[in-house]
Amino acid sequence: KQEVTQIPAALSVPEGENLVLNCSFTDSAIYNLQWFRQDPGKGLTSLLLIQSSQREQTSGRLNASLDKSSGRSTLYIAASQPGDSATYLCASCEDRGSTLGRLYFGRGTQLTVWP
Amino acid sequence: GAGVSQSPSNKVTEKGKDVELRCDPISGHTALYWYRQSLGQGLEFLIYFQGNSAPDKSGLPSDRFSAERTGGSVSTLTIQRTQQEDSAVYLCASSPTLSTISNQPQHFGDGTRLSIL
Fold it and tell me: Of A106, A100, A110, which Cα lies nearest the Cα of A29?
């Protein structure tokens, strides 16, 4: 069974810092790796999706990289802002038979950016 | 609608009662997923539908849990004889088709917060 781990569990930084959130997974047979954001009391908002054949994806101040062979993904947030405060979740997408499309989630990194 | 809609947003019920949770996926999305988010377990997969069929029910925690989907659209998750450990946020997600899962993210609703007294 796929296991996804996120480090750190929590992070508190002043506005303007560049951040790195880490995600590791045990089974490299994935369709893609997805990063989500979750605000309190809300569902998940998709941030970036990296296909298994890709190395990275970028959206605005966010950049996510994927190294399948080592089972790692990194989310880089540039010039952090208070509005970035949320829980960030990574998830690997299963590519095997009847479990195709199933997401395995990490426990998340709770980010606080203070002014 | 524009996004995945779940109802009710909150549900409080007594232990032993049955509950039904509803999910309206994005129009045209054929794949639908249910997840559960609890403090002790994080986010865990429950079941997914491709059209009206459920190829993977392996995540359902017990036979008290069941789900159905009709007309390739609305899905209902039913929990019978609820227990306190069923308290969690139940999230629904949809995506266009399984053939596009390599490059299409799942779109999530805001969830139903279930509290069992």
Answer: A100
Which uninterrupted H or E stretch holds A51?
A: strand A44-51
* Cβ-count burial A5-26 (b if 16+ within 10 Å, e if not): ebeeeebebeeeeebebebbbe
Instruction: Dump pLDDT digits (tens) for A89-102.
Output: 999 987 766 566 78
Question: What is the arrangement of strands in the sheet containing A62-67, beginning at the earlier edge strand?
Answer: A4-7, A19-25, A72-77, A62-67, A56-59
Q: Chain A partners of B55 at a C-beta cutoff of 8 Å?
A: 98, 100
Phi, psi of B71 (to 5 degrees): 65, 20
User: Cβ separation of B98 and A100 shorter than 8 Å?
Assistant: yes
- Residuewise pLDDT in 10s, chain B (117 residues): 579 999 999 999 999 999 999 999 999 898 899 999 998 778 999 998 988 988 878 889 999 999 999 988 999 999 999 999 999 999 999 988 765 665 788 899 999 999 999
* Residue-level length of chain A: 115
Strand partners, A113: A13
Place of tokens 């959130």: A21
Pairwise CB contact (< 8 Å): A101 & B107? no
Q: Does B60 touch chain A (CB under 8 A)?
A: no
* Contact assessment for residue A98 and residue B55, using Cβ atoms and an 8 Å cutoff: yes
Q: Are B28 and B73 within 8 A, CB to CB?
A: no
CA distances (Å), B51 to each of A80, B28, B47, B94, B98, in order? 41, 10, 13, 11, 10
